[in-house]
User: Fold this.
Amino acid sequence: MSQQGSDSSYGVVLVTTSSQAEAVAIAEALIAAKLAACVGMFPIQSLYTWEGTLHHDQEWQLVIKTCLTHFPALEARIRAMHSYEIPEIIALPVVSGSQPYLDWIASQVLASPPN
Assistant:
């Protein structure tokens, strides 16, 4: 068993941003605050309806590896930095994972959720 408990305490949080610069700024802030162990980023093409209009936008997808016990603080930090009125912030639990990798995540994030 890992330092944080069962695999279900780990998760991946998905966030889209409007630019690479915004994605990097959010990723760096989360890692510096020890709210995330790692953030992967890649460009995506998004189609969605916003305020009655169909949009086709180039965005950046963040894949944030973390302990879900930190989700409230992580969400607050993302909201404070994000340019979208309603940003995508979706947490997906890790059902199973390589124990050494899960232990590494635990070693990179705060031992307990911030107040």
About this structure: The two ends are 26 Å apart (CA to CA).
